[in-house]
Specification:
This protein has 161 residues and is mainly alpha-helical. The chain is built from three helices and two strands. Helices cover 49% and strands 4% of the residues. A hairpin with a 5-residue loop joins strand 1 and strand 2.
Length: 161
Protein backbone atom coordinates (compact mmCIF):
# COMPACT_ATOMS: atom_id res chain seq x y z
CA UNK A 1 0.00 0.00 0.00
CA UNK A 2 1.10 3.53 -0.73
CA UNK A 3 2.23 5.55 2.22
CA UNK A 4 0.47 8.75 3.14
CA UNK A 5 2.05 12.09 2.38
CA UNK A 6 1.49 13.27 5.88
CA UNK A 7 -0.95 15.95 4.82
CA UNK A 8 -4.46 14.66 5.32
CA UNK A 9 -6.13 17.04 2.83
CA UNK A 10 -3.63 16.12 0.09
CA UNK A 11 -4.17 12.40 0.74
CA UNK A 12 -7.96 12.82 0.30
CA UNK A 13 -7.49 14.79 -2.94
CA UNK A 14 -5.13 12.12 -4.34
CA UNK A 15 -7.56 9.30 -3.50
CA UNK A 16 -10.44 11.14 -5.15
CA UNK A 17 -8.31 12.04 -8.17
CA UNK A 18 -7.34 8.37 -8.61
CA UNK A 19 -10.97 7.30 -8.28
CA UNK A 20 -12.09 9.92 -10.85
CA UNK A 21 -9.35 8.80 -13.25
CA UNK A 22 -10.45 5.16 -13.04
CA UNK A 23 -14.09 6.17 -13.36
CA UNK A 24 -13.31 8.38 -16.41
CA UNK A 25 -11.46 5.50 -18.07
CA UNK A 26 -14.40 3.18 -17.50
CA UNK A 27 -16.86 5.76 -18.88
CA UNK A 28 -14.65 6.25 -21.98
CA UNK A 29 -14.43 2.47 -22.56
CA UNK A 30 -18.21 2.07 -22.19
CA UNK A 31 -18.82 5.07 -24.48
CA UNK A 32 -16.61 3.56 -27.20
CA UNK A 33 -18.47 0.26 -26.94
CA UNK A 34 -21.88 1.92 -27.08
CA UNK A 35 -20.84 4.12 -30.00
CA UNK A 36 -19.58 1.06 -31.93
CA UNK A 37 -22.78 -0.83 -31.19
CA UNK A 38 -24.88 2.13 -32.41
CA UNK A 39 -22.87 2.33 -35.64
CA UNK A 40 -23.26 -1.41 -36.19
CA UNK A 41 -27.00 -1.18 -35.51
CA UNK A 42 -27.28 1.62 -38.07
CA UNK A 43 -25.48 -0.46 -40.68
CA UNK A 44 -27.67 -3.47 -39.96
CA UNK A 45 -30.73 -1.23 -40.30
CA UNK A 46 -29.45 0.08 -43.67
CA UNK A 47 -28.80 -3.49 -44.83
CA UNK A 48 -32.28 -4.60 -43.84
CA UNK A 49 -33.79 -1.62 -45.69
CA UNK A 50 -31.78 -2.53 -48.79
CA UNK A 51 -32.74 -6.20 -48.50
CA UNK A 52 -36.46 -5.60 -48.10
CA UNK A 53 -36.63 -2.47 -50.27
CA UNK A 54 -38.40 0.75 -49.42
CA UNK A 55 -41.79 2.01 -50.39
CA UNK A 56 -42.11 5.26 -52.28
CA UNK A 57 -42.77 8.26 -50.06
CA UNK A 58 -43.24 11.96 -50.84
CA UNK A 59 -40.08 13.28 -52.48
CA UNK A 60 -38.24 9.95 -52.38
CA UNK A 61 -38.60 7.24 -55.03
CA UNK A 62 -39.09 3.67 -53.86
CA UNK A 63 -36.34 1.08 -54.12
CA UNK A 64 -36.92 -2.60 -54.90
CA UNK A 65 -35.62 -5.22 -52.50
CA UNK A 66 -32.92 -7.78 -53.24
CA UNK A 67 -35.32 -10.57 -54.16
CA UNK A 68 -37.17 -8.32 -56.61
CA UNK A 69 -33.85 -7.31 -58.19
CA UNK A 70 -32.79 -10.96 -58.51
CA UNK A 71 -36.13 -11.73 -60.18
CA UNK A 72 -35.53 -8.94 -62.71
CA UNK A 73 -32.03 -10.29 -63.44
CA UNK A 74 -33.46 -13.78 -63.91
CA UNK A 75 -36.08 -12.46 -66.35
CA UNK A 76 -33.36 -10.71 -68.37
CA UNK A 77 -31.29 -13.89 -68.39
CA UNK A 78 -34.23 -15.85 -69.81
CA UNK A 79 -34.68 -13.25 -72.57
CA UNK A 80 -30.99 -13.50 -73.50
CA UNK A 81 -31.07 -17.30 -73.35
CA UNK A 82 -34.06 -17.29 -75.72
CA UNK A 83 -31.89 -15.55 -78.32
CA UNK A 84 -29.02 -18.05 -78.08
CA UNK A 85 -30.80 -21.26 -79.08
CA UNK A 86 -32.91 -22.19 -82.10
CA UNK A 87 -36.59 -21.95 -81.22
CA UNK A 88 -39.61 -20.24 -82.75
CA UNK A 89 -37.72 -18.66 -85.64
CA UNK A 90 -37.54 -15.20 -84.12
CA UNK A 91 -34.34 -15.54 -82.12
CA UNK A 92 -30.93 -14.18 -83.02
CA UNK A 93 -29.67 -17.74 -83.37
CA UNK A 94 -32.42 -18.52 -85.92
CA UNK A 95 -31.48 -15.39 -87.88
CA UNK A 96 -27.82 -16.45 -87.96
CA UNK A 97 -28.80 -19.94 -89.10
CA UNK A 98 -30.95 -18.47 -91.90
CA UNK A 99 -28.06 -16.22 -92.96
CA UNK A 100 -25.72 -19.24 -93.01
CA UNK A 101 -28.20 -21.18 -95.16
CA UNK A 102 -28.39 -18.29 -97.66
CA UNK A 103 -24.61 -18.01 -97.67
CA UNK A 104 -24.30 -21.73 -98.37
CA UNK A 105 -26.64 -21.35 -101.35
CA UNK A 106 -24.75 -18.34 -102.71
CA UNK A 107 -21.21 -19.55 -101.99
CA UNK A 108 -21.11 -23.34 -101.56
CA UNK A 109 -17.29 -23.37 -101.30
CA UNK A 110 -17.29 -21.09 -98.24
CA UNK A 111 -19.34 -23.48 -96.12
CA UNK A 112 -18.02 -27.05 -96.67
CA UNK A 113 -20.73 -29.36 -97.96
CA UNK A 114 -23.29 -26.57 -97.85
CA UNK A 115 -23.68 -27.08 -94.08
CA UNK A 116 -25.40 -24.06 -92.57
CA UNK A 117 -26.32 -25.50 -89.22
CA UNK A 118 -23.93 -23.31 -87.29
CA UNK A 119 -22.18 -24.77 -84.27
CA UNK A 120 -24.53 -27.76 -83.92
CA UNK A 121 -22.24 -29.72 -86.23
CA UNK A 122 -19.53 -31.68 -84.42
CA UNK A 123 -16.06 -30.31 -84.95
CA UNK A 124 -13.99 -32.74 -87.08
CA UNK A 125 -10.89 -34.10 -85.41
CA UNK A 126 -7.59 -34.83 -87.08
CA UNK A 127 -6.98 -38.42 -86.08
CA UNK A 128 -4.77 -40.99 -87.77
CA UNK A 129 -7.89 -42.55 -89.28
CA UNK A 130 -9.14 -39.19 -90.62
CA UNK A 131 -5.69 -37.99 -91.67
CA UNK A 132 -3.64 -40.90 -92.95
CA UNK A 133 -0.70 -38.61 -93.67
CA UNK A 134 -0.64 -39.23 -97.43
CA UNK A 135 -2.12 -35.83 -98.27
CA UNK A 136 -5.59 -37.17 -99.06
CA UNK A 137 -8.59 -35.31 -97.82
CA UNK A 138 -10.57 -37.09 -95.12
CA UNK A 139 -14.34 -37.17 -95.65
CA UNK A 140 -16.06 -34.33 -93.78
CA UNK A 141 -12.76 -32.84 -92.62
CA UNK A 142 -11.94 -29.20 -93.14
CA UNK A 143 -8.33 -29.06 -91.97
CA UNK A 144 -6.90 -30.41 -95.25
CA UNK A 145 -6.10 -28.12 -98.17
CA UNK A 146 -9.04 -27.45 -100.46
CA UNK A 147 -9.13 -26.41 -104.08
CA UNK A 148 -8.01 -22.82 -104.45
CA UNK A 149 -5.60 -22.91 -101.50
CA UNK A 150 -2.00 -22.15 -102.40
CA UNK A 151 1.22 -21.98 -100.47
CA UNK A 152 3.84 -19.34 -101.00
CA UNK A 153 7.58 -19.92 -100.75
CA UNK A 154 7.47 -19.36 -96.96
CA UNK A 155 4.88 -22.14 -96.54
CA UNK A 156 2.04 -19.75 -95.55
CA UNK A 157 -1.36 -20.80 -96.82
CA UNK A 158 -3.36 -18.35 -98.90
CA UNK A 159 -6.90 -18.73 -100.14
CA UNK A 160 -7.07 -18.59 -103.90
CA UNK A 161 -9.71 -16.84 -105.98
Amino acid sequence: MVEATGIDALDVVLVWAGALTVLGGLVAAVWRGVRGALRLAGRVDDFMDDWAGQEERPGVPGRPGVMERVGAIEARLHRVEHELYPNSGGSLRDAVDRANERLALLCPTVVPGGDARGDRRPVPRDTEQDNPGDGSTAPGGTSHPTSGDTRDSAGDSHEGG
